[in-house]
Amino acid sequence: MNSAPSISSAPPPSAPPASSVSGKAVRPGDRIFLGLSRGSGIALLVIMAAIAAFLTVRSVIAISGDHANFLTYFEWNTSGPEPKFGIAVLAFGTVVSSVIAMFIAVPVAVGIALFISHYAPRRLASPLGYVIDLLAAVPSIIYGLWGALFLVPHLTGLFSWLDDYFGWTGIFSYADGAPRALFTVGILLAIMILPIVTSVSREVFLQAPKMHEEAALALGATRWEVIRMSVLPFGRSGVISASMLGLGRALGETMAVATVLSPSFLINVSLLNPGGGTFAQNIASKFSEADEFGQDALIASGLVLFVITLLVNGAARMIIARRKEYSGANA
């Protein structure tokens, strides 16, 4: 009698590597990418700390030798046995010109972004978006030359109109002369940051969930109602981020402001008359001819601008964190 055939069992599967069971990356590429990412983050922190330390050390030397109040003094005289200098005028000019630029640029940029993303036909939207992106790459000195040779001569009529109707406020009173004032700087900065805010806002609006828009249209909403109820709430954080990017450029702009502004260490109530200055413009115009102590004083003003930029970005992050809206990606 034949014996029953033996059933050969397959060899047991090999156990997975311990490294894959523990969830750790085993591929060399993953290790390299992790190391590069971690190193890049650490390098960024080290660079920022080095910049802050350099600015602080040089600023302490200058402020300790200042014979006036650095924060409230209205003059800038770093020569002589008793140097006196302060940043009151520079802080005023930097903040006011940047606020004017944001007040003009952000609404216009959001409108252009909405037109490109939701209103313009595709044949027009693509070239228009390309032109907007191209404007963001124009060098600052080009804007400055255009502002000095074209914008300034053509603002006389606008300034006269503002003086006729709003001169009673004092803010828009205008005397005769070339309109090289903070309001001119604000208009030029608005033109410069417009492409940045528009490009980022456009990309954010294009990421709005299509299901939300189609649902609103199916319920009978108009195009504006769809934008107001679906697109703008979704892109609010992105618009704030775009605005902060534009504000960062406005705060630190140098050559364009130096080309257009007629600076003086005087805070003028009227925005249409010459007066004021900015941190970046003052550093650019005085650094080459300053002695070592004068350079330290300019570096101290740069530290103030550095702190203002950090505070603005920190406030923007707080606003974005508090205003996060529902996104279709979270569903």
Automatic annotation (TrEMBL):
Protein biosynthesis listed as a keyword: no
Ranges that cross the membrane: 41-65, 85-116, 128-152, 181-201, 250-272, 297-316
Record InterPro entries: MetI-like (IPR000515), MetI-like_sf (IPR035906), Phosphate_PstC (IPR011864), Phosphate_Transport_Permease (IPR051124)
Keywords per UniProt: Cell membrane, Membrane, Phosphate transport, Transmembrane, Transmembrane helix, Transport
Gene Ontology cellular component list: plasma membrane
Domain ABC transmembrane type-1: 91-316
Purpose: Part of the binding-protein-dependent transport system for phosphate; probably responsible for the translocation of the substrate across the membrane.
PANTHER family (alphabetical): PHOSPHATE TRANSPORT SYSTEM PERMEASE PROTEIN PST, PHOSPHATE TRANSPORT SYSTEM PERMEASE PROTEIN PSTC
Full protein name: Phosphate transport system permease protein
Source organism of this protein record: Streptomyces rimosus subsp. rimosus (strain ATCC 10970 / DSM 40260 / JCM 4667 / NRRL 2234)
Organism ancestry: Bacteria, Bacillati, Actinomycetota, Actinomycetes, Kitasatosporales
